[in-house]
Amino acid sequence: MTANYHRLHFLVEGQSEEIVVNNVLGPYLADRGWAVSQSIVTTRRPAGGPNHRGGVSSWSKVEREIKLLLRDSSLGVLTTLFDFYAFPPDAPGMSDIPPGLSPHERVAHVEQSLAAAAADHRFVPHLILHELETWVFAAAEQVGCLLPGLTERLVKDVHMAGGPELVNDGPDTAPSKRIFNYCPRYSKTSDGPLAIADLGVVGLRSQCPHFDEWLDHLDSRLS
């Protein structure tokens, strides 16, 4: 351990996000000075049985996990990798989003509310605008190498929306729903993370302003 050692823990929504942290974000952030760890949110703790992990169905379960993790005084930053799409309506900031805000302003409002509710400067919430498949839209060329014919459809959607982070139009047309509609054999835990890894963090940052701002903020915590 050196003087530049900083612990960063990811609380993630599911297996796909875990893979992306392990294979893409973790190595990138380690090169910048972070010691990265991750865990999948525990959604149910049945008596006498194993914990159930994955998915964010209610804020109370996530909040409990955040409080447990923040008890670790050696933790430098706790961040999250959750989808903004279908985020629990009972979460701080979700019910009082001011009307007329842009998608980027809406997600920023909720993240700021989550941080305020935690009341711990080490908590830096991040919600993907709008879900992990947003990053697959950014990696349209790369996923097309895995699933021929998909690139053109994703590029068209990104162009019409104005950027990968703006591809969202409801429960039937959110990023993941569009991809499965275009290519039913798409695998969330294989094709998506592989395409994102092929694009790389630098390529992702160039197309996704909200993602870029989050990494800028993590960089600021290293100084």
Descriptive notes:
There is one protein chain. The protein is of the alpha/beta class and 223 residues long. The protein has nine helices and seven strands. The strands form two sheets. Strands 1, 2, 5, 6 and 7 form a five-stranded parallel β-sheet that branches. Strands 3-4 form a two-stranded antiparallel ribbon. Helix 5 runs antiparallel to helix 6 (150-161). The two termini are 17 Å apart. Residues 44-53 have low confidence and may be disordered.
Fill in the keyword field for this structure.
globular, 5-stranded parallel beta sheet, alpha/beta, 13% strand, 223 residues, two-stranded antiparallel ribbon
Describe the structure concisely for a colleague.
This protein has helices spanning 15-31, 59-69, 103-118, 133-138, 140-146, 150-161, 175-182, 191-207, 209-220; strands at 6-12, 34-40, 42-44, 52-53, 77-83, 123-124, 127-128. The protein has 223 residues and is of the alpha/beta class.
Task: Give the SSE map.
Blueprint: E1 6-12, H1 15-31, E2 34-40, E3 42-44, E4 52-53, H2 59-69, E5 77-83, H3 103-118, E6 123-124, E7 127-128, H4 133-138, H5 140-146, H6 150-161, H7 175-182, H8 191-207, H9 209-220
Parallel strand pairs: 1-2, 1-5, 5-6, 5-7
Antiparallel strand pairs: 3-4
Helix pairs in contact: 1-8, 5-6, 5-8, 8-9
